[in-house]
Write a structure and sequence with these properties.
The complex is a heterodimer of chains A (643) and B (485).
Chain A (H helix, E strand, L loop, with lengths): L1 H17 L1 H33 L4 E11 L2 E9 L1 H24 L6 H20 L3 H19 L6 H32 L4 H7 L7 E4 L2 E4 H16 L8 H4 L5 H10 L4 H8 L1 H4 L3 H22 L5 H21 L3 H28 L17 H15 L5 H16 L2 H29 L7 H5 L6 H25 L4 H5 L11 H5 L4 H24 L3 H8 L1 H8 L4 H32 L1 H18 L4 H22 L3
Antiparallel strand pairs in A: 1-2, 3-4
Helix pairs in contact in A: 1-2, 1-4, 2-3, 2-4, 3-4, 3-10, 3-15, 3-20, 4-5, 5-6, 5-10, 6-8, 8-11, 8-13, 10-15, 11-14, 11-15, 13-14, 13-18, 14-15, 14-17, 14-18, 15-16, 15-17, 15-20, 16-18, 16-20, 17-18, 17-20, 17-23, 18-23, 24-25, 26-27
Chain B lengths: L12 H19 L5 H22 L14 H28 L5 H18 L3 H19 L6 H32 L4 H10 L6 H17 L8 H8 L2 H24 L6 H23 L5 H22 L2 H27 L1 E2 L2 E2 L9 H4 L1 H15 L5 H15 L3 H27 L12 H16 L5 H18 L1
Antiparallel strand pairs in B: 1-2
Helix pairs in contact in B: 1-2, 1-4, 2-3, 2-4, 3-4, 3-10, 3-13, 3-19, 4-5, 4-10, 5-6, 5-10, 6-8, 6-9, 8-10, 8-11, 9-10, 9-12, 10-12, 10-13, 11-12, 11-17, 12-13, 12-16, 12-17, 13-15, 13-16, 13-18, 13-19, 15-17, 15-18, 16-17
Classes of the chains: A mainly alpha (643), B mainly alpha (485).
Chain lengths: 643, 485
């Protein structure tokens, strides 16, 4: 039955993709949405059965690869972690499917779009149910492919194509790390099956891995490599540049792939591999560092962006940073908890933003919005819910999960832990600021859109708002409902064997003992950030402009995203282009073509010209040639005779 | 009472028949009141068919004229090819003369005499018989090349052919006399015995004589560096005569080449192999390279046939059974490819005038789809593209070369066939990818159509049943090597 959860979306994708012309738009909608909904219901059953009733199981479908010691099966490893992911993926995906019916109704390529969405969902489910690393890699690449196809869905737009290629290429760097990690794992453990690796991991703690003259702790190296893969997919600092550009894709795609599911695959992977991670404290330190730095980086850039989707994209990047440093301090449960709540409120925000964009005739620039509160009230209130949840308003979902992360980080009681904690606190303030900035710029004040656009502003149809309402419910209550399992008393029973946390790393248990000010600080930061945003964008609307001109250095630095793109362009893109250009012009053009096809053909042509010139038409020339030939042959024998 | 024993002549009956028939036809032509070209052409074809049948009936192992005239499976095979080639040439010529309104009854008769010469060449068992056959053939062809006396090009071609041909005959004759002088006999068997005896201490005279002989024969197969006449004569001669020149004399000369070198000179293979390898390489290379720049399709085919002779000479250079049978297969396939191609060239007329530029074919795929397709098949086949017949011709030749460990020769052959593919494909490009500039005339005569499509079908379906040709060629090669080996 659980296999159906994974394969129903695939069937939907194939039907919509290959028979889209026959079944039409409506048919494609029905097929994919119904299969998705069925998958979601089964996912809920699965969650109840596996996570709440502790019926973890592995379903083997059939053997995929069997070669010597290498054995990989198509198997679904369903434990609590997987069940949570299935729940998140199927429910958000279903909502996005339904929402897209409304959002994409102008688009002429509906079946293709829905086929891609379902294909993505299948690949994502394959990823989270993987029972071995190769199968996980299959899903990993599958979601990468679907992401590429969906970012470039509007292939007529050059920006969309560029963004799609960028996403693919940047992810390739991460995937390379992941692949190396898999190779290394097989080298060390002689197996790629997760359960077997987890049993073997403690035995290899002191093992050294030597490569050329370089020698290091084996598990640390492997986990670092795998983490590089996670960084690529989850857009962590260094490999994050593709995520903001990926906003070129349709908004439902951003909600599903680039907020709720695919980008969290890295977090999932770290949690899934916790039995390896726990034995690599150096890697955990790096994870914490990278996560915390990403959080502050993305939040600071988010302050200055004017594109509504990019603000949310940076916010996503920043929240992923939270999840990573949670995992870095061994609070995997808290990381996944935040993943769950974030999926709801971030999908809600994205789809809300989509609703705004839809209302504004595809305008994404917030400086051309404003005053939409009265025109699209339902969207406004749903966005408020999402924003409150994100910014950590007490008793909404983000409040619980973020607080749990911060407390656990504080309880880690290491230098890096405190680094992450203070950054986390500061970023909580920034988050509140940029989130409310978004709300104020979009929904309050005077409308700055041109008249023609203003006239067409309308509330989105029910098919778009219903999914929003569903997600809003999730954003409101998932935190409260989940706390018991992710950070409370039932945590140990709930997780079963899905996560491994060593005794000395039990930060979540330790979080209960943190001082009161640590517990209150995030909420205080929320108030500070919100008030500041209110002050800057409601009371003194001129202030941001003055500030940005006064501190234009910092402003430009943030506006240009810390100049990461420029740096990469300089370091990699241009040198790669130069390198490629040199190979093309000098290597291929001059050497291979010059000496090969072109050179030979021009030589043959020259020879041909000369041969034709010999044919003068004069009889005595011809006779002369014959005599020369005769004499040459005769001489050959006369002088060579006897040898 | 003394009984005069006449020499046995039975195995020469096809030749004797053709000689008699030729005289009669000539008389008919001369004394007929009205033009008899059509009738004589039909009669000539009939004679050829009778000759083929007679060849199979009487061509036993028995030699005629005290060994001056030899018949074996090899000569039977090559004579059949020659006769088929001549029949097709007569068909083309008759058709051509009708269209051009330039009827000359001498043409079929001359072709008959040329063919007779070729058959005698192939069957020659003696240097004198060889020379007589060769000259009968050559003299008839000189006249044929210049048959359009009103055309400057045609007369020029005839004259050039004659002068250079005379030079080559001189070489051949000089070589023959050197060989006679140093071996004491003109009979192939006697020469073979002498050479066998002094194998380890061969006199230079015989060797130089051989060089002259080879040079004379190389002229006939238009092998480099004795090829210079070919492009000019091919271009100048009337197209059906060019077709004849490209087919029957080439087949005859090459078979004679084989007959002589594998016959009396088989004991000194290492000696003559060097020259044959050289002229083979030179012909293949020049044939491939020089044709690239040609704009006239007949000139192009001249170079193409130089190249083809180069490939065929690989088989001779191999000097083994596989090589000889390879040559025979190659020649058979070459015959049909060339007849078909020349048939297509005869279709190239605009406003009643024959045109010969390759560019005149532009867009032919649209105006003459069937003809263009046939030419495409012939060009692909000449370029050696499987599964067409031309591929197998090259295949057997290269196989023989590798068997004889002549790897260099095989590699150069492959490379030059790649270069040659360029100009064959260029013709296809003109027909299929270029726009029509000025359309060619419509309408093909029935005979032309039969020749073109018949050859095309043979070229296409050869790969389905190559067995007959391959096995009879193998038998022919065996008879030659078996007798003299």
């Amino acid at each position: 039955m659980y296999a159906a959860i994974v394969f129903l979306p695939l069937v939907g994708a194939l039907l919509a993709g290959f028979f889209g012309k026959i079944i039409g738009d409506r048919g494609a909608h029905l097929v994919t949405c119904i299969f998705m909904a069925a998958s979601m219901l089964l996912g809920a059953v699965c969650f109840y059965d596996v996570a709440l009733q502790q019926n973890a199981q592995t379903i083997t479908l059939f053997t995929w690869i069997e070669s010597g010691n290498l054995k990989a099966e198509w198997a679904l490893k369903i434990d609590t972690l997987t069940a949570i992911m299935i729940l998140v993926v199927t429910s958000v995906s279903t909502m996005v499917h339904v929402y897209s019916i409304g959002y994409m109704h102008h688009d002429p390529h509906n079946p293709r779009f829905f086929a891609y969405l379902s294909l993505f969902t299948f690949a994502m489910l394959m990823l989270v149910t993987a029972d071995n690393l190769v199968q996980m890699f299959f899903g990993w690449e599958g979601v990468g492919l679907a992401s590429y196809l969906l970012i470039g869905f509007w292939y007529q737009k050059p920006e969309a194509n560029a963004a799609a290629i960028k996403a693919f290429l940047v992810n390739r760097v991460g995937d390379f790390g992941f692949a190396l990690g898999i190779f290394g794992t097989y080298l060390l453990f002689d197996t790629i099956v997760l359960d077997e690796i987890f049993i073997l991991a403690p035995k290899y703690v002191e093992t050294e891995l030597t490569f050329l003259w370089f020698s290091a702790d084996a598990i640390t190296v492997l986990t670092m490599l795998l983490f590089i893969g996670a960084m690529g997919k989850s857009a962590q600092l260094g490999l994050h540049t593709w995520l903001p550009d990926a906003m070129e894709g349709p908004t439902p795609v951003s909600a599903l792939i680039h907020a709720a599911t695919m980008v969290t695959a890295g977090v999932f992977m770290i949690a899934r591999l916790s039995p390896m991670m726990e034995y690599a404290p150096d890697t955990l330190t790096v994870v914490t560092l990278i996560g915390a730095t990403t959080a502050i980086f993305a939040a600071s850039v988010g302050l200055c962006q004017n594109d509504i989707k990019r603000v949310i994209a940076y916010s996503t990047c920043s929240q992923l940073g939270y999840m990573f440093f949670a995992c870095g301090v061994s609070a995997y449960s808290a990381g996944i908890y935040h993943l769950l709540t974030h999926a709801f409120f971030k999908a809600l925000l994205f789809l809300g933003a989509g609703s705004v964009i839809h209302a504004m005739s595809d305008e994404q620039d917030m400086t051309k919005m404003g005053g939409l509160r009265k025109r699209i009230p339902l969207t406004y209130w749903l966005m408020i819910v999402g924003t409150l949840a994100l910014t950590g308003f007490p008793f909404l979902s983000g409040f619980y999960s973020k607080d749990l992360i911060l407390e656990a980080t504080f309880a880690r009681d290491t230098g890096v832990g405190y680094y992450a904690f203070y950054i986390g606190i500061f970023v909580a303030g920034l988050t509140a600021f940029y989130s409310w900035r978004l709300i104020f710029m979009t929904f309050h004040g005077e409308c700055r859109a041109p008249k023609s656009v203003q006239d067409k502003i309308h509330e989105s149809p029910l098919v778009m708002t219903l999914p929003l309402i569903f997600l809003a419910v999730g954003a409101l209550f998932s935190g409260k409902l989940g706390y018991e399992f992710f950070g409370g008393e039932s945590m140990k029973a709930f997780w079963g064997d899905a996560l491994l946390v060593l005794k000395e790393n039990r930060t979540i248990e330790a979080a209960a003992g943190v001082p009161m000010w640590v517990v209150l600080l995030p909420t205080i930061m929320f108030i500070v950030g919100t008030s500041l945003a209110f002050y800057c964008y409601q009371l003194k609307p001129d202030l941001p402009k003055t500030l940005s001109s006064k501190f234009s250095g910092i402003y430009q630095f943030l506006l240009n995203k810390w100049y990461f793109d420029e740096l990469y362009d300089l370091l990699f893109v241009r040198s790669a282009f130069r390198f490629g250009h040199a190979l093309w012009k000098k290597g291929d053009g001059a050497v291979i073509d010059g000496l090969g096809p072109d050179g030979i053909s021009s030589m043959v042509r020259r020879l041909s010209g000369q041969a034709v010139r010999l044919q003068s038409g004069f009889l005595y020339h011809y006779a002369f040639a014959m005599m020369i030939g005769l004499i040459a042959f005769a001489s050959w024998y006369i002088f060579g005779f006897g040898n | 009472m003394s009984i005069i024993q006449l020499p046995s002549m039975i195995s020469a009956s096809p030749e004797i028949f053709l000689a008699g028939a030729g005289m009669i036809l000539l008389m008919i032509g001369v004394f007929r009141k009205t033009d008899g070209t059509g009738v004589l052409s039909m009669a000539t074809i009939l004679c050829f068919i009778v000759a083929i049948i007679a060849g199979f009936l009487y061509g036993g192992q028995e030699n005629a004229f005290y060994g001056m005239f030899i018949t074996t499976s090899f000569t039977q095979f090559s004579k059949s090819l020659i006769l088929v080639g001549s029949i097709l040439a007569v068909v083309l010529a008759n058709d051509y003369m009708k269209t051009e309104k330039a009827q000359r009854f001498e043409v079929p008769v001359l072709i008959l005499f040329a063919t007779l010469g070729m058959m005698m060449m192939v069957s020659a068992g003696d240097l004198i018989a060889l020379y007589i056959g060769l000259e009968l053939q050559s003299l008839s062809l000189y006249v044929l090349a210049a048959i359009r006396r009103d055309s400057l090009k045609s007369t020029e071609a005839g004259l050039k052919y004659f002068v250079l041909g005379a030079l080559s005959s001189g070489m051949l004759l000089y070589g023959a006399s050197l060989i006679y002088g140093f071996s004491g006999s003109t009979d192939f068997l006697d020469i073979a015995n002498v050479i066998n005896e002094q194998k380890d201490n061969l006199s230079l005279g015989i060797l130089i004589g051989l060089v002259f002989l080879i040079s004379g024969l190389a002229f006939k197969v238009s092998a480099v560096p004795f090829h210079m006449w070919t492009p000019d004569v091919y271009e100048g001669a009337p197209t059906p005569i060019t077709a004849l020149l490209a087919i029957s004399p080439k087949i005859a000369a090459l078979c004679l080449f084989i007959q002589v070198l594998i016959g009396p000179f088989s004991a000194i293979i290492e000696q003559w192999q060097q020259i044959i390898i050289f002229i083979s390489i030179a012909s293949m290379t020049l044939g491939a390279v020089a044709a690239l720049m040609q704009t006239n399709i007949k000139r192009l085919l001249a170079y193409s046939s130089i190249g083809h002779m180069g490939y065929a000479l690989i088989g001779l250079a191999s000097a083994n059974e596989a090589g000889i049978s390879g040559v025979l297969i190659y020649l058979a396939i070459y015959l049909f490819m060339n007849v078909g191609t020349f048939g297509c060239i005869l279709c190239m007329r605009r406003n009643g005038q024959a045109v010969e530029q390759i560019s005149d074919l532009a867009g032919a795929s649209k105006s003459h789809p069937m003809m263009a397709f046939a030419l495409l098949v012939f060009m692909f086949s000449m370029a050696g593209i499987p599964p067409l017949a031309g591929f197998f011709g090259k295949w057997f030749i290269f196989l023989a070369a590798i068997e004889a460990q002549l790897y260099t020769l095989a590699i150069i052959g492959v490379i030059s066939s790649v270069v040659a593919a360029f100009y064959y494909l260029r013709i296809i490009k003109f027909m299929y990818f270029d726009e029509i500039v000025a359309p060619l005339d419509k309408g093909l005569t029935k005979n032309l159509r039969t020749v073109i499509y018949g050859s095309m079908t043979l070229v296409i379906i050869f790969f389905l049943a190559p067995g007959t040709l391959v096995s009879s060629a193998a038998k022919a090669a065996k008879s030659l090597i078996g007798v003299n080996g």
